[in-house]
């Protein structure tokens, strides 16, 4: 089962959902803000995409962090993991988990290749 991870208020996540719906792709939606993020799921994301690809340094949540926390997250993988678990909105989104691969961000071409 395909799972789309995101947050309701994210415009890019909305585009991803509309694309999946329009092409008739079955998926489950997981709202990171409401349903959260556990350590096992985060580690799975990191294994598939890498920590650097997941940390959203352009997010509102990132900009609200103290500069010392931002630097610590850049320098220390354990600190970055802790911050992502505490603030799931620090993950780049949407995250589309096909079971075989993880697509970080939204590009309509990536979504067109999905099986229904």
Structure commentary:
The structure is a single chain. The chain is α+β, with helices and mostly antiparallel strands and 116 residues long. The protein has one domain: 3-Layer(aba) Sandwich (Glutaredoxin). The protein is 52% helix and 14% strand. Strands 2-1-3-4 form a 4-stranded mixed β-sheet, with helices on both faces. A hairpin with a 4-residue loop joins strand 3 and strand 4. 23% of the residues are buried. The model has no long low-confidence stretch (mean pLDDT 94).
Tell me the span between the first and last alpha carbons: 10 Å
- Briefly note the structural class of the backbone: alpha+beta
CATH class term? Alpha Beta
**What is CATH's topology name?**
Glutaredoxin
Beta-strand portion reads 5-15%
How would you name the CATH homologous superfamily? Glutaredoxin
Provide the low-confidence segments as ranges: none
- Overall, the morphology is globular
What is the N-to-C succession of helices and strands?
A: EHEHHHHHHEEH
Task: Give the overall pLDDT as a whole number.
Answer: 94
Number of domains: 1
Major sheet characteristics? 4 strands, mixed
Based on the model shown, name its key terms.
globular; alpha+beta; 14% strand; 8 helices
Chain-wise SSE layout:
Layout: E1 2-6, H1 11-22, E2 27-31, H2 32-35, H3 39-49, H4 51-54, H5 60-64, H6 67-75, H7 77-86, E3 95-97, E4 102-104, H8 108-112
Parallel strand pairs: 1-2
Antiparallel strand pairs: 1-3, 3-4
Helix pairs in contact: 6-7
Question: Summary?
Answer:
The protein has 116 residues and is an alpha+beta fold. 52% of the residues lie in helices and 14% in strands. The chain has a single domain (2-112), classed as Glutaredoxin, CATH 3.40.30.
